[in-house]
């Protein structure tokens, strides 16, 4: 009996502090965020009026929000395509084509993954800088007039200019994931295919892709979720959502509404939308990618 | 005939791939090198010369002193260091204890609890940003390093619990049983036998959390408005915003370089653990 008591006490003493911490600083804020989304609230405690789903009705009519959603999906699509294609290509190159220096490439390509997004954002702002940046100076070599394109300052190029550093910073991680996946494929499969005279392309589509599909799927889902939940830091550092909301994403719009304009209820409603949209996206992607898998195998 | 063309194709493919790999290597390394070179230039060189020009002699080492003292990076570094070390330590303690129970002491609902922690990895933290601000405000923790330590610790828990559970599960049960037979209690068995055995997992989550905390920007900027309490990423963002009014690119580049230095050193020292850490987070 004493033993059971001791055991129970031990279990509780190990679980409780962590759970308390987690409840107060993670679960409570998230639940409270959903609750606040039903209020009109500027942040000062007296004026918190219940408005039901009014914030969401307003959101549905808010053209900036839909612009932000479209921009988020643009970044998701661009990053998924750019990162998966590049990472797969690099992974196949260092494993199947037996190019030397695999370890070297792994170390170098992964480097941007450990650097702060702030540093990456600031660094790329300078690469894009109209006057002192590398990009315009490089382009100027091929033109008579020096190029002075404000890449981040005009609506047509700004979002593309944010997409590129996101791909630059993201490839390394998925490259590592896919290299590990390809190295797990039994060599005998490729040997048999070679005996049958299958070309490199044929081997890639019939052996490599089906056998690493699980990791490609994980990569796509991971890119989609992390982009929807966290793309705003890059955006905030590089353009603050501008010019004229051309690069606004849901996260940066939330930040602006909450902490620049003090519409806390509205900001929280955007937060709920981010959650809902990322959950729906995950479910839809899982569906789509599963069907592909059965077709291939 | 056919075989020869395939061979030739293969050679061409290999050469092309090698070229593209080297191109990407340059695309990664050059911006970093450019930062390092820029940290040694003065404004005139930025304005008048090509961006890829090497810094002129004498090298402007004073940029580093400028950013360290005049731009208060000494304070930012100290703040970041305190926040990173304390929250990393707390996250290890809080996650290892819970993970040990979840891995070894099955009880009604332990599985549910595990999934509660796990699902928090999927939820956008930004949803809780507004309430968290007011919660910290009520607790008097806005503009305090303590407030940042708390939110960073909480933020690190789901991933850390997840990694530590799988680590404790992988350890053989005989070791604990031997400890119990020797008369060690639950607490002693954990702290003297199991926790040291899970060292590899502890290092992995420790490094991951330290990297994430060192690099974090959003919560750092929302929960701290006092320049004396800025962390490094917030300090960099503020400094770069100031560049609209006065241009001191050299010191800014020096600041970028300095802020990357600690993570690069950690990367060199713990490359294997970092790679293991990030990949275990994605394959959940």
TrEMBL record, chain A:
<feature type="transmembrane region" description="Helical">
    <location>
        <begin position="107"/>
        <end position="127"/>
    </location>
</feature>
<dbReference type="GO" id="GO:0055085">
    <property type="term" value="P:transmembrane transport"/>
</dbReference>
<keyword id="KW-1133">Transmembrane helix</keyword>
<comment type="similarity">
    <text>Belongs to the binding-protein-dependent transport system permease family.</text>
</comment>
<keyword id="KW-0813">Transport</keyword>
<keyword id="KW-1003">Cell membrane</keyword>
<keyword id="KW-0472">Membrane</keyword>
<feature type="transmembrane region" description="Helical">
    <location>
        <begin position="73"/>
        <end position="95"/>
    </location>
</feature>
<keyword id="KW-0812">Transmembrane</keyword>
<dbReference type="Pfam" id="PF00528">
    <property type="entry name" value="BPD_transp_1"/>
</dbReference>
<dbReference type="GO" id="GO:0005886">
    <property type="term" value="C:plasma membrane"/>
</dbReference>
<dbReference type="InterPro" id="IPR051393">
    <property type="entry name" value="ABC_transporter_permease"/>
</dbReference>
<feature type="domain" description="ABC transmembrane type-1">
    <location>
        <begin position="69"/>
        <end position="285"/>
    </location>
</feature>
<dbReference type="InterPro" id="IPR035906">
    <property type="entry name" value="MetI-like_sf"/>
</dbReference>
<dbReference type="InterPro" id="IPR000515">
    <property type="entry name" value="MetI-like"/>
</dbReference>
<feature type="transmembrane region" description="Helical">
    <location>
        <begin position="220"/>
        <end position="239"/>
    </location>
</feature>
<protein>
    <submittedName>
        <fullName>Sugar ABC transporter permease</fullName>
    </submittedName>
</protein>
<feature type="transmembrane region" description="Helical">
    <location>
        <begin position="9"/>
        <end position="31"/>
    </location>
</feature>
<feature type="transmembrane region" description="Helical">
    <location>
        <begin position="264"/>
        <end position="285"/>
    </location>
</feature>
<feature type="transmembrane region" description="Helical">
    <location>
        <begin position="162"/>
        <end position="185"/>
    </location>
</feature>
TrEMBL record, chain B:
<dbReference type="GO" id="GO:0005886">
    <property type="term" value="C:plasma membrane"/>
</dbReference>
<keyword id="KW-0812">Transmembrane</keyword>
<keyword id="KW-0472">Membrane</keyword>
<protein>
    <submittedName>
        <fullName>Carbohydrate ABC transporter permease</fullName>
    </submittedName>
</protein>
<dbReference type="InterPro" id="IPR035906">
    <property type="entry name" value="MetI-like_sf"/>
</dbReference>
<feature type="domain" description="ABC transmembrane type-1">
    <location>
        <begin position="77"/>
        <end position="270"/>
    </location>
</feature>
<dbReference type="Pfam" id="PF00528">
    <property type="entry name" value="BPD_transp_1"/>
</dbReference>
<keyword id="KW-1133">Transmembrane helix</keyword>
<feature type="transmembrane region" description="Helical">
    <location>
        <begin position="189"/>
        <end position="211"/>
    </location>
</feature>
<feature type="transmembrane region" description="Helical">
    <location>
        <begin position="249"/>
        <end position="270"/>
    </location>
</feature>
<feature type="transmembrane region" description="Helical">
    <location>
        <begin position="148"/>
        <end position="168"/>
    </location>
</feature>
<feature type="transmembrane region" description="Helical">
    <location>
        <begin position="12"/>
        <end position="33"/>
    </location>
</feature>
<feature type="transmembrane region" description="Helical">
    <location>
        <begin position="76"/>
        <end position="102"/>
    </location>
</feature>
<dbReference type="InterPro" id="IPR000515">
    <property type="entry name" value="MetI-like"/>
</dbReference>
<comment type="similarity">
    <text>Belongs to the binding-protein-dependent transport system permease family.</text>
</comment>
<dbReference type="GO" id="GO:0055085">
    <property type="term" value="P:transmembrane transport"/>
</dbReference>
<keyword id="KW-1003">Cell membrane</keyword>
<feature type="transmembrane region" description="Helical">
    <location>
        <begin position="114"/>
        <end position="136"/>
    </location>
</feature>
<keyword id="KW-0813">Transport</keyword>
């Amino acid at each position: 009996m004493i033993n059971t008591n001791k055991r129970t006490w031990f279990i509780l003493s190990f679980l409780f502090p962590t759970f308390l911490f987690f409840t107060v600083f993670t679960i409570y804020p998230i639940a409270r965020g959903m609750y606040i989304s039903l209020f009109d609230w500027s942040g000062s405690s007296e004026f918190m009026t219940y408005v039901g789903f009014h914030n969401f009705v307003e959101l549905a009519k808010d053209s900036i929000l839909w612009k932000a959603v479209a921009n988020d999906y643009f970044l998701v699509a661009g990053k998924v395509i750019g990162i998966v294609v590049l990472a797969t290509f690099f992974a196949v190159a260092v494993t199947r084509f037996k190019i030397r220096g695999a370890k070297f490439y792994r170390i170098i390509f992964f480097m941007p993954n450990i650097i702060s997004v702030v540093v990456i954002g600031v660094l790329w702002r300078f690469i894009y800088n109209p006057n002192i940046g590398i990009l315009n100076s490089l382009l100027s070599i091929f033109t008579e007039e020096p190029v002075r394109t404000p890449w981040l300052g005009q609506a047509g190029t700004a979002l593309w200019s944010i997409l590129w550093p996101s791909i630059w910073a993201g490839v390394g991680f998925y490259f590592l994931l896919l290299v590990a996946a390809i190295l797990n494929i039994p060599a005998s499969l490729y040997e048999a295919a070679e005996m049958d005279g299958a070309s490199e392309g044929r081997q890639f589509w019939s052996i490599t892709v089906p056998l690493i599909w699980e990791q490609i799927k994980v990569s796509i889902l991971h890119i989609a979720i992390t982009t929807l939940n966290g793309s705003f830091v890059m955006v905030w550092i590089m353009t603050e959502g501008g010019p004229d909301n051309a690069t606004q994403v849901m996260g940066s719009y939330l930040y602006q509404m909450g902490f620049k304009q003090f519409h806390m209820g509205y900001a929280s409603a955007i937060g709920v939308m981010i959650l809902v949209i990322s959950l729906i996206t995950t479910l839809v992607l899982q569906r789509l990618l599963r069907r592909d898998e059965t077709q291939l195998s | 005939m056919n075989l020869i063309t395939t061979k030739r194709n293969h050679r061409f493919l290999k050469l092309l791939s090698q070229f593209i790999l080297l191109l990407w290597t340059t695309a990664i390394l050059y911006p970093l090198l450019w930062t390092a070179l820029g940290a040694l230039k003065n404004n005139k060189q930025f304005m008048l010369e090509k961006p890829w020009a090497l810094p002129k002699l004498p090298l402007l080492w004073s940029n580093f002193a400028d950013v360290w003292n005049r731009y208060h990076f000494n304070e930012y570094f100290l703040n970041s260091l305190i926040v990173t070390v304390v929250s990393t330590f707390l996250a290890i303690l809080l996650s290892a204890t819970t993970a040990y129970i979840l891995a070894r002491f099955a009880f009604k609902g332990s599985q549910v609890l595990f999934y509660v922690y796990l699902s928090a990895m999927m939820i956008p933290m930004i949803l809780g940003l507004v309430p968290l601000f007011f919660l910290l405000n009520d607790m008097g923790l806005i503009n305090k390093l303590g407030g940042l330590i708390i939110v960073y610790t909480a933020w690190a828990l789901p991933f850390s619990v997840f990694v530590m559970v799988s680590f404790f599960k992988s350890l053989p049960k005989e070791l604990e049983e031997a400890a119990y037979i020797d008369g060690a209690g639950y607490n002693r068995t954990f702290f003297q036998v199991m926790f040291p055995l899970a060292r590899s997992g502890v290092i992995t989550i420790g490094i991951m959390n330290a990297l994430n905390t060192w690099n974090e920007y959003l919560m750092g900027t929302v929960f701290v408005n006092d320049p004396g309490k800025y962390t490094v990423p917030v300090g960099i963002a503020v400094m770069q915003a100031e560049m609209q009014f006065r241009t001191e690119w050299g010191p800014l580049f020096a600041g970028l370089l300095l802020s990357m230095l600690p993570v690069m050193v950690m990367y060199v020292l713990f490359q294997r653990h970092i790679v293991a850490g990030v990949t275990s987070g994605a394959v959940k």
